[in-house]
Amino acid sequence: MQSVTARKDIQDKPESSLPYVLPFVVFFALLSLAPYLEGLVGRWEFPLRAVILTVTLWLTSRSVIDLRVSHPISTTAVGIGVFLLWIGPDYLIPGYRNHWLFQNDYLGHLKSGIDPKYQLDSLVLAVRSFRAIILVPIIEELFWRAWLMRWLVDQHFWKVPLGAFTWTSMLVSAALFGSEHGSFWEVGIVAGLIYNFWMVRTRRLGDCILAHAVTNGCLSLYVVVAQRWEYWP
Questions:
Q1: Which of the residues 53, 150, 193, 206 could staple to 69 if both were Cys, CB 3.0 to 4.6 A apart?
Q2: Structural domain spans, the chain
Q3: Which residues make Cβ contacts (< 8 Å) with residue 82, sequence separation at least 6?
């Protein structure tokens, strides 16, 4: 495990947080605006969001996106493992997710992220899958693992190498990652810890993006095949 004192490949030149943070902010802004956008443009809200996110990543973040993978097989296994973790409690314990710990006025309530009238729409399903498998892993790994984990070590985050380890950065970022996932907060925290440790292990953004993409790819297939739309918030 790499300690925070193992300083390798550190950039001395100050680096902006914008490429890491802005796509994440845009992602959540569009998520909040989705009902209004759908009211204006209907099913085209899904490709519109995907286009806006893609353009945002291209214009602001392409210089910091590193898709190189150092451990493709084990990274894929990590992604599949997180997927099994994500669906495991609900699969093994009927009604598990209905407990008040997971559905309440603070965390929200389970609901489908796709209106029933779009659940057989091939365009909507394709674009929603593209967002989950390609865009979200890049956006979230830039924010959580490439920026926040380092920023929690030192606000001059560019001085901190990818994969630098402190318990504060590990636990706080995982807790926040879990809170982002509403009713799935408990598996979100464990998933965040796994992705965090994988960043420490590989020191590669690309490995974390691939692991996250595999998780979301398996989850997207499960959503469509099993008709479990609540997994697509």
A1: 206
A2: 18-231
A3: 191, 194, 195, 211, 215
221: enclosing H helix or E strand: helix 205-226
Q: Which residues pair with 165 in a beta bridge?
A: 3
* Structure letter (DSSP) for residue 97: G
Could you tell me which of 125, 110, 175, 128 has the C-alpha nearest to residue 148? 175
**Residue-wise DSSP of 23-61:** HHHHHHHHHHHHHHHHHHHGGGHHHHHHHHHHHHHHHHT
Cβ contact 45:68 at 8 Å = no
The predicted-structure confidence for 109-134, as pLDDT tens digits, reads as follows 888 878 899 999 999 999 999 999 99
Beta carbons within 10 angstroms of residue 156's beta carbon? 12
Segment 29-66, tens digit of pLDDT: 999 999 899 889 999 999 999 999 999 999 999 999 99
> With 0-12 CB in 10 A as exposed, 13-18 as middle and 19+ as buried, what is 2?
middle
Q: Are 24 and 142 in contact (CB under 8 A)?
A: yes
User: Percentage of residues in the chain with pLDDT exceeding 90?
Assistant: 84
- Residues 103, 183: contact at Cβ < 8 Å? yes
Whether the CB-CB separation of 19 and 26 falls below 8 Å is answered with no
Chain centroid offset of residue 224 CA: 19
- Rounded CA-CA distance 35/42 in Å is 9
Looking at residue 38, its amino acid is E
DSSP character string of 134-185: IIHHHHHHIIIIIIIHHHTT-SSGGGS-TT-B-HHHHHHHHHHHHHTTGGGH
